[in-house]
Design a protein that fits this description.
Blueprint: H1 3-22, H2 28-48, H3 58-63, E1 67-70, E2 76-81, E3 93-96, E4 101-103, E5 113-114, E6 117-123
Antiparallel strand pairs: 1-2, 2-6, 3-4, 3-6, 5-6
Length: 128
């Protein structure tokens, strides 16, 4: 699995969603199933890559849809896009908007989002 393969799945998901928005002839349930299947394939691809999100660079995270933000404590972080949350391994260290460290699957983290991004992200370390 490589980045090109993942991008193909992203574009397939985007195109499947576009078709659902334009197509008036098929049922909404049909399109929901197609979108869910495309999303499942994308997430399986990302999980198969076994990405270490904690050591990924800003560019690598941006390529997956993360976005940069400074936490209240000044830490540099990459906000997590909602779509990828289920592909991030349990135990991955994240920080909230205040800069407090939390762990996926261990600490309580809700999936409340604004603009598609969660209220926590991956802290960029000095070497990232």
């Amino acid at each position: 699995m490589n980045e090109s393969s993942t991008l193909k799945k992203v574009f397939h998901l985007i195109n499947t969603t576009a078709i659902a928005n334009r197509n008036e002839f098929k049922s909404l349930d049909h399109h929901r199933r197609e979108i869910a299947e495309s999303m499942e394939q994308l997430l399986l691809e990302i999980k198969a890559r076994q990405i270490n999100f904690e050591t990924s660079s800003r560019d690598e995270l941006e390529n997956l849809g993360f976005t940069f933000l400074k936490a209240e404590n000044g830490a540099s972080m990459m906000l997590i896009p909602l779509y990828i949350l289920s592909a991030i391994p349990e135990g991955t260290e994240v920080i909230n908007l205040k800069g407090t460290k939390l762990y996926i699957g261990i600490d309580y983290l809700d999936d409340d989002h604004r603009g598609g991004f969660l209220a926590y992200g991956i802290e960029l370390k000095e070497n990232n």
